[in-house]
Amino acid sequence: MRIKKAYPKAIAAVLILASSLTLWSCYPSAPDYIEDYDLVYTQPDNSYDFSKVTTYMLPDSVEHIVNPGDKPDHTYDKTILAELKKQLDALGWTRVTSTAGDVVVLPSVTHQKQGVCQAYCWWCYWGWWPGWGYYPPAWGGGWGWWYPSDVVCATYNTGTLVVNMTNPKQPKPNQLPVVWLGVLNGLLEGGTANINSRIQTNIAQMFKQSPYLNN
Amino acid sequence: MKYLLTIIAALAFYTAVNAQQVAEFSYQVSFPTGSFKDFVSKTGWVGFSGAYLHRLKNPQLSLGGAFTWFYFQDKKGHGTYPTDKENAAITGNRSNYTNIYQLVALVQYDFKKPKEHMVPYARIGVGGAYQDQRSDNGLYIIQADGAQFAAHADLGLRFNKDENHGFYIAATYNTLPAAQAMTATTFFGLKLGICGWGH
Protein backbone atom coordinates (compact mmCIF):
# COMPACT_ATOMS: atom_id res chain seq x y z
CA MET A 1 0.00 0.00 0.00
CA ARG A 2 1.32 3.42 -0.93
CA ILE A 3 1.52 5.70 2.03
CA LYS A 4 1.58 9.47 1.68
CA LYS A 5 3.43 10.94 4.60
CA ALA A 6 2.78 14.57 3.79
CA TYR A 7 -0.94 14.51 4.36
CA PRO A 8 -0.87 13.17 7.94
CA LYS A 9 1.80 15.77 8.71
CA ALA A 10 -0.50 18.48 7.45
CA ILE A 11 -3.30 17.11 9.57
CA ALA A 12 -0.96 17.04 12.56
CA ALA A 13 -0.17 20.71 11.96
CA VAL A 14 -3.88 21.46 11.95
CA LEU A 15 -4.24 19.51 15.19
CA ILE A 16 -1.51 21.58 16.82
CA LEU A 17 -3.34 24.68 15.64
CA ALA A 18 -6.57 23.29 17.05
CA SER A 19 -4.94 22.63 20.39
CA SER A 20 -3.90 26.29 20.52
CA LEU A 21 -7.61 27.07 20.68
CA THR A 22 -7.29 26.74 24.43
CA LEU A 23 -5.88 30.26 24.29
CA TRP A 24 -8.95 31.50 22.44
CA SER A 25 -12.29 32.62 23.74
CA CYS A 26 -15.12 34.52 22.16
CA TYR A 27 -17.18 37.28 23.72
CA PRO A 28 -20.20 39.17 22.39
CA SER A 29 -19.65 42.75 21.29
CA ALA A 30 -20.37 45.46 23.87
CA PRO A 31 -23.66 47.40 23.81
CA ASP A 32 -23.75 50.53 21.64
CA TYR A 33 -25.60 53.03 23.85
CA ILE A 34 -25.23 54.28 27.43
CA GLU A 35 -28.82 53.30 28.27
CA ASP A 36 -28.04 49.72 27.23
CA TYR A 37 -26.12 49.42 30.51
CA ASP A 38 -29.11 50.42 32.67
CA LEU A 39 -30.32 47.69 34.97
CA VAL A 40 -33.50 47.60 37.07
CA TYR A 41 -33.94 44.99 39.78
CA THR A 42 -36.92 44.52 42.06
CA GLN A 43 -37.66 42.04 44.81
CA PRO A 44 -40.59 41.88 47.22
CA ASP A 45 -41.04 40.28 50.61
CA ASN A 46 -43.50 37.64 49.43
CA SER A 47 -45.04 37.32 52.89
CA TYR A 48 -46.13 40.98 52.90
CA ASP A 49 -49.70 41.82 51.84
CA PHE A 50 -49.45 44.89 49.60
CA SER A 51 -53.23 44.98 49.09
CA LYS A 52 -53.59 46.47 52.56
CA VAL A 53 -51.35 49.45 51.80
CA THR A 54 -53.22 52.72 51.34
CA THR A 55 -50.71 55.33 52.53
CA TYR A 56 -47.03 55.94 52.08
CA MET A 57 -44.44 58.30 53.45
CA LEU A 58 -41.81 59.65 51.05
CA PRO A 59 -39.19 62.05 52.48
CA ASP A 60 -38.34 65.33 50.77
CA SER A 61 -34.74 64.38 50.20
CA VAL A 62 -32.62 61.60 48.80
CA GLU A 63 -29.96 60.03 50.95
CA HIS A 64 -26.49 60.12 49.37
CA ILE A 65 -23.85 57.62 50.35
CA VAL A 66 -20.47 59.13 49.48
CA ASN A 67 -16.86 58.53 50.37
CA PRO A 68 -15.51 60.68 53.24
CA GLY A 69 -14.57 64.10 51.84
CA ASP A 70 -16.71 63.77 48.70
CA LYS A 71 -19.63 66.12 48.14
CA PRO A 72 -22.98 64.57 47.23
CA ASP A 73 -24.40 65.50 43.83
CA HIS A 74 -28.06 66.50 44.21
CA THR A 75 -28.63 67.18 40.49
CA TYR A 76 -31.11 64.36 40.07
CA ASP A 77 -32.84 64.35 43.48
CA LYS A 78 -35.91 66.25 42.27
CA THR A 79 -36.39 63.89 39.34
CA ILE A 80 -36.07 60.84 41.59
CA LEU A 81 -38.55 62.12 44.18
CA ALA A 82 -41.04 63.37 41.58
CA GLU A 83 -41.04 60.09 39.65
CA LEU A 84 -41.37 58.01 42.83
CA LYS A 85 -44.33 60.14 43.93
CA LYS A 86 -45.94 59.76 40.50
CA GLN A 87 -45.60 55.98 40.56
CA LEU A 88 -46.76 55.59 44.17
CA ASP A 89 -49.76 57.82 43.54
CA ALA A 90 -50.58 55.72 40.48
CA LEU A 91 -50.94 52.73 42.80
CA GLY A 92 -53.82 54.57 44.48
CA TRP A 93 -51.79 55.15 47.63
CA THR A 94 -51.94 58.47 49.49
CA ARG A 95 -48.84 60.33 50.57
CA VAL A 96 -48.63 61.20 54.26
CA THR A 97 -45.99 63.28 55.98
CA SER A 98 -45.39 61.16 59.02
CA THR A 99 -44.05 57.69 59.56
CA ALA A 100 -47.62 56.67 60.36
CA GLY A 101 -47.97 55.64 56.72
CA ASP A 102 -48.42 51.97 55.90
CA VAL A 103 -45.03 51.99 54.19
CA VAL A 104 -42.04 54.33 54.26
CA VAL A 105 -40.21 54.72 50.95
CA LEU A 106 -36.53 55.60 51.31
CA PRO A 107 -34.47 56.41 48.20
CA SER A 108 -30.69 56.42 48.43
CA VAL A 109 -28.00 57.04 45.85
CA THR A 110 -24.38 56.01 45.49
CA HIS A 111 -22.02 56.80 42.67
CA GLN A 112 -18.53 55.67 41.81
CA LYS A 113 -15.80 56.51 39.38
CA GLN A 114 -14.42 53.39 37.71
CA GLY A 115 -11.20 53.00 35.81
CA VAL A 116 -10.24 50.42 33.27
CA CYS A 117 -7.24 49.86 31.00
CA GLN A 118 -7.17 47.75 27.89
CA ALA A 119 -4.26 46.62 25.81
CA TYR A 120 -3.97 45.76 22.17
CA CYS A 121 -1.27 43.15 22.13
CA TRP A 122 0.29 40.80 19.66
CA TRP A 123 -0.27 37.78 21.87
CA CYS A 124 -4.00 38.38 22.22
CA TYR A 125 -6.56 37.23 19.73
CA TRP A 126 -7.97 39.84 17.38
CA GLY A 127 -9.48 42.78 19.19
CA TRP A 128 -9.25 44.14 22.66
CA TRP A 129 -8.16 42.02 25.55
CA PRO A 130 -11.00 42.14 28.06
CA GLY A 131 -10.18 43.30 31.51
CA TRP A 132 -6.43 43.46 31.05
CA GLY A 133 -6.11 45.87 33.90
CA TYR A 134 -8.26 47.51 36.49
CA TYR A 135 -7.74 49.93 39.26
CA PRO A 136 -10.32 50.67 41.91
CA PRO A 137 -11.72 54.17 42.28
CA ALA A 138 -9.70 54.76 45.42
CA TRP A 139 -6.53 54.78 43.33
CA GLY A 140 -7.77 57.65 41.17
CA GLY A 141 -6.65 61.25 41.46
CA GLY A 142 -3.16 62.11 42.58
CA TRP A 143 -1.50 59.07 41.06
CA GLY A 144 0.71 59.32 38.06
CA TRP A 145 0.40 56.51 35.56
CA TRP A 146 2.61 55.35 32.81
CA TYR A 147 1.32 53.07 30.11
CA PRO A 148 2.89 51.38 27.12
CA SER A 149 1.86 53.07 23.88
CA ASP A 150 -0.63 50.34 23.01
CA VAL A 151 -2.61 50.62 26.24
CA VAL A 152 -5.68 52.82 26.46
CA CYS A 153 -7.23 53.82 29.79
CA ALA A 154 -10.59 55.39 30.49
CA THR A 155 -12.73 56.35 33.46
CA TYR A 156 -16.48 56.32 33.72
CA ASN A 157 -19.07 57.12 36.36
CA THR A 158 -21.63 54.64 37.57
CA GLY A 159 -24.59 55.33 39.77
CA THR A 160 -26.99 53.24 41.81
CA LEU A 161 -30.40 54.27 43.12
CA VAL A 162 -31.78 52.00 45.81
CA VAL A 163 -35.43 52.39 46.81
CA ASN A 164 -36.28 50.63 50.06
CA MET A 165 -39.97 50.30 50.88
CA THR A 166 -40.16 49.58 54.58
CA ASN A 167 -42.86 48.57 57.00
CA PRO A 168 -42.76 50.98 59.99
CA LYS A 169 -45.41 49.02 61.85
CA GLN A 170 -43.27 45.98 62.49
CA PRO A 171 -39.88 47.40 63.42
CA LYS A 172 -37.19 45.12 64.76
CA PRO A 173 -34.54 46.50 67.14
CA ASN A 174 -32.74 49.23 65.14
CA GLN A 175 -34.17 47.84 61.90
CA LEU A 176 -37.07 48.51 59.57
CA PRO A 177 -38.22 45.45 57.63
CA VAL A 178 -37.85 46.02 53.89
CA VAL A 179 -40.96 44.77 52.10
CA TRP A 180 -39.93 45.82 48.61
CA LEU A 181 -36.60 46.68 47.06
CA GLY A 182 -36.01 48.52 43.80
CA VAL A 183 -32.53 49.03 42.40
CA LEU A 184 -31.47 51.06 39.38
CA ASN A 185 -27.87 50.82 38.26
CA GLY A 186 -26.24 52.34 35.21
CA LEU A 187 -23.69 54.68 33.73
CA LEU A 188 -23.84 58.28 34.95
CA GLU A 189 -22.67 59.51 31.58
CA GLY A 190 -24.35 61.72 29.01
CA GLY A 191 -26.20 65.02 29.37
CA THR A 192 -28.36 65.95 32.35
CA ALA A 193 -31.54 65.73 30.25
CA ASN A 194 -30.60 62.24 29.10
CA ILE A 195 -29.85 61.05 32.64
CA ASN A 196 -33.10 62.59 33.94
CA SER A 197 -35.05 60.82 31.20
CA ARG A 198 -33.38 57.48 31.99
CA ILE A 199 -34.07 57.90 35.72
CA GLN A 200 -37.78 58.49 35.00
CA THR A 201 -38.03 55.58 32.59
CA ASN A 202 -36.28 53.16 34.92
CA ILE A 203 -38.15 54.14 38.09
CA ALA A 204 -41.35 53.60 36.11
CA GLN A 205 -39.94 50.20 35.13
CA MET A 206 -39.44 49.29 38.81
CA PHE A 207 -43.19 49.56 39.34
CA LYS A 208 -44.13 48.07 35.98
CA GLN A 209 -42.29 44.84 36.79
CA SER A 210 -43.84 44.71 40.30
CA PRO A 211 -47.54 44.14 39.52
CA TYR A 212 -48.15 42.69 43.01
CA LEU A 213 -47.88 46.27 44.41
CA ASN A 214 -51.13 47.10 42.63
CA ASN A 215 -53.25 44.34 44.23
CA MET B 1 -8.92 14.12 33.81
CA LYS B 2 -5.38 12.96 34.64
CA TYR B 3 -6.29 9.39 33.59
CA LEU B 4 -7.83 10.66 30.38
CA LEU B 5 -4.73 12.65 29.47
CA THR B 6 -2.55 9.64 30.22
CA ILE B 7 -4.67 7.38 28.02
CA ILE B 8 -4.66 9.88 25.16
CA ALA B 9 -0.90 10.43 25.46
CA ALA B 10 -0.28 6.67 25.52
CA LEU B 11 -2.49 6.16 22.48
CA ALA B 12 -0.77 9.00 20.63
CA PHE B 13 2.63 7.49 21.34
CA TYR B 14 1.48 3.97 20.46
CA THR B 15 -0.07 5.04 17.18
CA ALA B 16 3.07 6.96 16.29
CA VAL B 17 5.07 3.77 16.19
CA ASN B 18 2.40 1.21 15.30
CA ALA B 19 -0.32 0.35 12.84
CA GLN B 20 -2.70 2.79 11.26
CA GLN B 21 -3.31 6.21 12.66
CA VAL B 22 -6.06 8.62 11.69
CA ALA B 23 -6.03 12.37 12.16
CA GLU B 24 -9.11 14.51 11.79
CA PHE B 25 -10.17 18.11 11.86
CA SER B 26 -13.82 19.10 11.87
CA TYR B 27 -16.19 22.03 12.00
CA GLN B 28 -19.54 21.75 13.76
CA VAL B 29 -22.76 23.76 13.74
CA SER B 30 -24.70 23.21 16.98
CA PHE B 31 -28.33 23.52 18.03
CA PRO B 32 -28.98 23.94 21.79
CA THR B 33 -31.62 21.75 23.42
CA GLY B 34 -33.22 21.32 26.86
CA SER B 35 -32.45 23.81 29.64
CA PHE B 36 -29.37 24.97 27.74
CA LYS B 37 -31.77 26.36 25.14
CA ASP B 38 -33.15 28.68 27.83
CA PHE B 39 -29.64 30.00 28.43
CA VAL B 40 -28.62 30.20 24.76
CA SER B 41 -31.32 29.65 22.17
CA LYS B 42 -29.29 30.64 19.11
CA THR B 43 -27.43 28.24 16.84
CA GLY B 44 -23.76 27.88 17.74
CA TRP B 45 -21.62 28.63 14.70
CA VAL B 46 -18.27 28.06 16.40
CA GLY B 47 -17.25 24.44 16.91
CA PHE B 48 -13.79 23.20 15.98
CA SER B 49 -12.37 19.82 16.79
CA GLY B 50 -9.10 17.98 16.31
CA ALA B 51 -9.09 14.20 16.78
CA TYR B 52 -6.57 11.39 16.67
CA LEU B 53 -7.60 7.75 16.27
CA HIS B 54 -5.83 4.40 16.17
CA ARG B 55 -7.29 1.45 14.29
CA LEU B 56 -7.15 -1.76 16.29
CA LYS B 57 -6.45 -5.30 15.06
CA ASN B 58 -10.05 -5.36 13.93
CA PRO B 59 -9.66 -2.33 11.63
CA GLN B 60 -13.34 -1.47 11.95
CA LEU B 61 -12.73 -0.54 15.57
CA SER B 62 -10.73 2.57 16.56
CA LEU B 63 -9.69 4.24 19.80
CA GLY B 64 -8.46 7.80 20.21
CA GLY B 65 -9.01 11.22 21.64
CA ALA B 66 -10.31 14.62 20.62
CA PHE B 67 -10.08 18.23 21.67
CA THR B 68 -13.00 20.49 20.83
CA TRP B 69 -13.81 24.19 21.29
CA PHE B 70 -17.40 25.39 21.18
CA TYR B 71 -18.72 28.92 21.53
CA PHE B 72 -22.38 29.85 21.88
CA GLN B 73 -23.84 33.31 22.26
CA ASP B 74 -27.32 34.72 22.52
CA LYS B 75 -27.78 38.48 22.66
CA LYS B 76 -31.20 38.40 24.28
CA GLY B 77 -31.38 42.19 24.25
CA HIS B 78 -33.43 44.49 26.44
CA GLY B 79 -36.13 42.76 28.42
CA THR B 80 -37.51 41.81 31.82
CA TYR B 81 -36.19 38.50 33.09
CA PRO B 82 -37.19 36.42 36.13
CA THR B 83 -34.61 35.43 38.70
CA ASP B 84 -34.40 32.40 40.98
CA LYS B 85 -36.21 34.42 43.68
CA GLU B 86 -40.01 34.35 43.54
CA ASN B 87 -41.50 37.56 42.08
CA ALA B 88 -38.07 39.16 41.71
CA ALA B 89 -37.29 40.52 38.25
CA ILE B 90 -34.44 42.17 36.43
CA THR B 91 -34.76 44.48 33.44
CA GLY B 92 -31.86 45.32 31.22
CA ASN B 93 -29.77 44.40 28.27
CA ARG B 94 -28.72 40.75 28.52
CA SER B 95 -26.21 38.69 26.58
CA ASN B 96 -25.63 35.04 27.47
CA TYR B 97 -22.60 33.21 26.15
CA THR B 98 -20.34 30.29 26.88
CA ASN B 99 -16.98 28.91 25.80
CA ILE B 100 -16.53 25.13 26.12
CA TYR B 101 -13.16 23.36 25.90
CA GLN B 102 -13.69 19.62 25.75
CA LEU B 103 -11.21 16.74 25.91
CA VAL B 104 -12.62 13.26 25.34
CA ALA B 105 -11.50 9.68 24.71
CA LEU B 106 -13.05 8.21 21.57
CA VAL B 107 -14.33 4.78 20.56
CA GLN B 108 -15.39 4.38 16.94
CA TYR B 109 -16.91 1.49 15.03
CA ASP B 110 -17.00 1.46 11.20
CA PHE B 111 -19.94 -0.47 9.81
CA LYS B 112 -17.93 -1.37 6.68
CA LYS B 113 -14.31 -2.16 5.96
CA PRO B 114 -12.35 1.10 6.35
CA LYS B 115 -11.16 1.01 2.70
CA GLU B 116 -14.67 1.10 1.26
CA HIS B 117 -15.59 4.26 -0.64
CA MET B 118 -18.38 5.16 1.80
CA VAL B 119 -18.12 4.03 5.41
CA PRO B 120 -20.91 4.64 7.90
CA TYR B 121 -19.69 4.77 11.48
CA ALA B 122 -20.77 5.31 15.08
CA ARG B 123 -18.60 7.08 17.63
CA ILE B 124 -18.78 7.75 21.34
CA GLY B 125 -16.65 10.30 23.18
CA VAL B 126 -16.38 10.43 26.97
CA GLY B 127 -14.24 12.82 28.98
CA GLY B 128 -14.18 16.19 30.65
CA ALA B 129 -14.61 19.84 29.79
CA TYR B 130 -13.96 23.29 31.14
CA GLN B 131 -16.91 25.58 30.53
CA ASP B 132 -17.23 29.32 31.15
CA GLN B 133 -20.90 30.35 31.14
CA ARG B 134 -21.51 34.08 31.41
CA SER B 135 -24.46 36.41 31.41
CA ASP B 136 -23.80 40.11 30.81
CA ASN B 137 -26.48 42.24 32.46
CA GLY B 138 -25.90 45.97 32.22
CA LEU B 139 -22.57 46.65 33.90
CA TYR B 140 -22.49 43.25 35.59
CA ILE B 141 -21.32 39.82 34.52
CA ILE B 142 -22.79 36.73 36.16
CA GLN B 143 -20.25 33.95 35.68
CA ALA B 144 -20.44 30.21 36.29
CA ASP B 145 -17.42 28.23 35.25
CA GLY B 146 -15.60 25.04 36.09
CA ALA B 147 -14.80 21.50 35.05
CA GLN B 148 -17.54 19.04 34.22
CA PHE B 149 -18.19 15.64 32.65
CA ALA B 150 -18.62 15.66 28.88
CA ALA B 151 -19.84 13.06 26.41
CA HIS B 152 -21.01 12.90 22.83
CA ALA B 153 -22.33 10.34 20.38
CA ASP B 154 -21.90 10.60 16.61
CA LEU B 155 -23.45 8.84 13.63
CA GLY B 156 -21.52 9.64 10.51
CA LEU B 157 -20.60 8.78 6.98
CA ARG B 158 -16.99 8.91 5.80
CA PHE B 159 -16.13 9.31 2.11
CA ASN B 160 -12.71 7.95 1.27
CA LYS B 161 -11.31 10.04 -1.55
CA ASP B 162 -8.30 7.78 -1.95
CA GLU B 163 -6.36 5.38 0.22
CA ASN B 164 -4.95 8.15 2.43
CA HIS B 165 -7.56 10.79 2.95
CA GLY B 166 -11.21 11.64 2.85
CA PHE B 167 -13.93 13.68 4.46
CA TYR B 168 -16.93 12.94 6.60
CA ILE B 169 -20.27 14.27 7.74
CA ALA B 170 -21.90 13.36 11.03
CA ALA B 171 -24.85 14.07 13.23
CA THR B 172 -23.82 14.45 16.85
CA TYR B 173 -25.35 14.90 20.28
CA ASN B 174 -23.34 16.47 23.08
CA THR B 175 -24.12 16.50 26.77
CA LEU B 176 -22.42 18.20 29.72
CA PRO B 177 -24.49 17.65 32.89
CA ALA B 178 -25.08 20.53 35.29
CA ALA B 179 -22.09 21.12 37.52
CA GLN B 180 -21.50 23.77 40.17
CA ALA B 181 -23.63 26.75 39.08
CA MET B 182 -23.48 25.88 35.39
CA THR B 183 -26.61 25.10 33.42
CA ALA B 184 -26.76 21.57 32.00
CA THR B 185 -25.50 21.83 28.45
CA THR B 186 -26.96 19.71 25.65
CA PHE B 187 -26.97 20.29 21.94
CA PHE B 188 -27.31 18.53 18.60
CA GLY B 189 -24.75 19.21 15.93
CA LEU B 190 -23.89 18.71 12.30
CA LYS B 191 -20.24 18.04 11.73
CA LEU B 192 -18.14 18.31 8.58
CA GLY B 193 -14.58 17.08 8.72
CA ILE B 194 -11.49 16.04 6.87
CA CYS B 195 -9.35 13.07 7.76
CA GLY B 196 -6.08 11.51 6.77
CA TRP B 197 -4.37 8.30 7.77
CA GLY B 198 -1.14 6.42 7.37
CA HIS B 199 1.21 3.97 9.09
From TrEMBL, chain A:
The keyword Signal applies. Residues 40-212 form the DUF4136 domain. Gene3D superfamilies: 3.30.160.670. Keywords: Signal. InterPro entries: DUF4136. It holds the Pfam family DUF4136. The keyword Lipid biosynthesis does not apply. Residues 1-30 form the signal peptide. This is DUF4136 domain-containing protein. It comes from Pinibacter soli.
Automatic annotation (TrEMBL), chain B:
GO terms for molecular function: hydrolase activity. InterPro entries: OMP/PagP_B-barrel. Residues 1-19 form the signal peptide. The keyword Signal applies. The keyword Hydrolase applies. Keywords: Hydrolase, Signal. This is Acyloxyacyl hydrolase.
